[in-house]
Amino acid sequence: MAISSDSTTVLTGSTGTRHPDDIAFSSKCTKQNICYSIVVIVFTTGVVMGILGLYFYNWRSQQPGTPVEPESEPYGPSNGPPNIVLLILDDLGHADIGYSEGSLQTPTPNIDRLAWDGIILNRHYTHPVCSPTRSALLTGKYAFQVGISNPSSPGEPYGIPLQFKLLPQYLKDLNYNTYMLGKWHVGAHTRAFFPGARGFDYWLGYMEGEVHPFDYTTGWLAPEVNRSGRNLYENGLQVAESCTNNHYLPHMLTEKFEQIVHNNGAEHSKPFFVYFASPLPKANSEANGTYRVNRQFVMPQYLSRPSVRAMDNEHFGRKQQMGQIQALDEQVKRIKEALECKGVLNKTIIIFMSDNGAAPMVLPTIHVNHGSNWPLRMFRGSPFEGGVRNLAFIWSKLLKKKGIVTDQLFHVADWLPTLYEAAGGNVSDLPNLTGISQWTSLKEGTKKGDRTELVALINPVRNVFGFVYQEPGSGTLYKIVGGPGSSHITGWYKTEGTNATLKMVNPTSVSVNCGHPEGIERTVCQPWLADCLFDLTNDPCELNNIAAAKPEMVNLMKNKVVSYNATAYPSVRQPYDPTSNPELFQNWWTPWQDPEPVRKASSCLPFQSSFSL
Q1: Closest to 587 in 3D by CA, of 242, 184, 234, 227
Q2: Which of 170, 244, 396, 555 has the fewest Cβ atoms within 10 angstroms?
Q3: Tens digit of pLDDT for each residue in 518-537?
């Protein structure tokens, strides 16, 4: 049965409220598979052996938490549509995992194993910041086409307009159970914008752009206002401190994922979709009364891993970031193990992606993640490649060709129609979307998609844009960046703790080859003065501005940007509303404009006591 956004809280983060079945269910397959290691004693007579063997089989199949055998075949018309797990990361840098630039600072064997066994999307583009990217992902449209151009801040009363249908609502039309874990950040001023009202049967997470991973507070500053409040909800209800006991949030969300998979129906009668919006590896910002204090938090065991421990404390911020990426790799490991132990891995599509580029340590009060996009240009918030060309791959047993890398253009808005088709839907039934279904290409492994251009950014508020275009015939990719509102920071930023002789990388087949010395501009680009043009096929690091040499291409692409801008939905951005102040709600961020801004659970009930499918 579906769970409404009003249903009783079912959190089990607190050690004092965990159900015995939850304790029995471990994230490690080795613990769950104890029953498989029992040696059946061979009896002297065939009759006795058969009876005892049948008795043992029946007993084992009735044990709670016992995994079923993995399916021999992936899903198909005979056994229903696939489960879908979409893992979106917060500010993960291009150079911060193993399979991309071969980082030796942050080995990520679990992520890498899935990536190399799936399809790596080497030209996967997002918008440069979180709310716009998530809006495009959930609506199948460019963010400016739904009125979202900037990341929202706490207390700003806006989100994805309610007239736009979201991905989980489309999947519910196809009989999916839908779940959301982690970061929302696309509207929270009324309950109509909460995940439960936008298509999710169950959800646990935080509503704003970032949260403290232990006390779940979000801090922010507005003019003359110091704002900080607790920000953790489950099905629309505030999750009390006594229910969580400062449990490390990435672990809590992973445990909740394990429980969802474990409890999602023994008969697998309905497929499930999990939108897992991890808080990793982004830092948290807190308001201290005069300015934002930036924090990176990580559990000690991740800082103790050999590669992290080897980093000198001169780059302690980078060391903490590496620890968070290790926590992310562990999260991916446990996600896969949960699916495998339940016996549904072969029936599941897994998508891994970052919402935008990393934020390196450039501006101390803003960019604090110590992430790396090297050798790509710029970072989070920028239309240059370091902000919008981001990590992504898809893994599934249904893929006919695995272990490949594709350079086909892919935009984050493409995921909605792609997954809808993968789930058995007819894309012709979808309304006018910007996204293009690329499911056939991915399933067949053709490395050829239907997309030939994409908008990386159109921001009517800031007056800045970025656009990618594939020239017919030659197939050359061009990129134009411009607008008077463009940042005057346009450079490249090396990975902390590395230098010319200590690069700390082992290049892979998807590592970026700049073609010229990395980080050294060949022809100046000042987008606030004049549009810049780059040949991404031969200059992926945007070192050489060729706008002066190719005025026809500049004009063609600029006209396309103008045409796309004409499809913009009016900006829904609203200024800070002082009535949202957490001090008015016992230090909670709430849906303050809702008739019922505060809803509390009567108790911390175990997950399974009110969750049944």
Answers
A1: 227
A2: 555
A3: 999 999 999 999 999 999 99
